[in-house]
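Handoff note, outgoing to incoming analyst
You'll be picking up this chain. Sequence as last confirmed:
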Amino acid sequence: MKSFDYFAPTTIREAVDILAKYPDAKVLAGGTDLLVHMKLRVRTPDVILDVGRLSGADALTIDRKRGLTIGPAVTMRQVELSQAAWKTYAGFAQGASVVGSIQIRNLATVVGNVCNAAPSADVAPGLIALGAKVRIAGPKGRRSMQVENFMTGPGQTALQQGEFVTGIQVPVPAARTGSAFVRHTPRGAMDIAVVGVGASVTLAARTGACQAARIVMGAVAPTPIRAKKAERMLRGQRLSEELIAKAAEVASGEARPISDVRASADFRRELVRVLTKRMVTAAWEDAMSKTRSKRRAA
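Most recent structure output, in case you need it:
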């Protein structure tokens, strides 16, 4: 591995100043991608900026008003072990729980997974389905944007020169909202998703109809994408197995997969159809269970 200079700032201001001084510096969160690339000399940075020492970097907190706050050094394992995350943000927690092995999840970070911007990123569909935003700091100040718009292509993000992600904010879901995520891999673990699908469903209080729905497909386009036509089919309707099956068929047509050594485009489309049906149904069932819980509490 090539030698490099290492910085571990404790404040966001200090980190921004370092990136301004060293514009080609690479940001280190968990390092499960960056360090491997450095050992293989795919990347040979002269400067590394470690965000793990920032104040609150490893904080995973849930607030009734702000929602879920994910620091830049929060690991997949932290999410996997968080009962609160599973209860309220199941689709996101399910994605975090299948990344690599336990050893990798102890190091790999949620922010790093999003910033790596792989089309198959396991946490991205769940985060997008739940309306998550990335928090960004840079020389022009701070800003935030939807995760949905942050990943712009394979390995590419909307970060500008000198910017880095300080965390992710997932809003409080609307009442009677359920979510779910699943991926298909040739192996049970230590593999990249051939297709991943995340979904969220919100039910109306009085009618029980679908008030809102999001369907997010991973590994079928240059970035995770929403099946917006399928979503529109569900909104305002009373859900049924037949309706969900029709929406899943439409979602399959919205996918833009390629054929490669891991799967053909046709197989990926079929997976989208099958997995979308399962995940919308699972999110619907999750939403209904929350509706029953509210009724019992009342």
